[in-house]
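Worked problem 6 (solution included).
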Amino acid sequence: MQARRNMSYPLPSSPRVLIVDDHRRIREPLAIILRKNKFDVRTAENAEGMNLLMASTPFDLVVLDVMLPDGDGFVLCQQVSQQHQVPVILLTAKDTAADRIHGLNLGADDYLTKPFEPMELVARINSVLRRTRRSAPPSPPPALKPRHYRFGGVSFDPVTATLSNEVGLLVNLGTSEGKLFQVFLDHPCIALTREQLIALTSPSSNEVSEVFDRTIDRQVSRIRRKLCDLADLGQALRTVRNGGYLLALEVEVSER
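Solution. The predicted structure is:
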């Protein structure tokens, strides 16, 4: 009998995967295992967090729990498939043929029933990515135009990470501070958790979350001081309940 060929060859680069599950004990261990298997991983605990990340970050695949506190996973699957053209693997506690068929008809690329072996998810992700990468023609990345931000009589240039007021006073942010502040400017008047801020500012999410939590807090404190020195706007960057921050300012964005 002919031997079966080993099809577990590695994928090029590090595919970026978004895990969406409201149970931290499921979400975080899966993220750790996927990172050990060379995936670039982001996580979200609900539909709001998923939409926030997908609006600003390109993903190669989404692992999506069917039961979320703020959204129907089947409906979200259809939205991700149609609006972002990103493959989806559904996670569910329901093991019925009707649910599997329903999910696949709405655009899911695979379906995994809880509980499952984490390495089975790794294998299914690799399988889906191989299929989609073979079938999708390569497309050039869109050209991004530099943005310019104005708020409360202050301007921010993300290229130089420089704040300036109407009388020409300049204040420079550090590189990490500039990236973090741009996230706030891109999401004004929206409460962002530390987990979301980490995901939106990190080129790679393989670092330890606890360290980044403290780093986010320190960066926010430094940004507040600089806003206060420049235009007495330090109080606009508010701490929100349950761990996070919000920029309480109206922001004008223009392309240069």
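Discussion: The chain has a mean pLDDT of 81.
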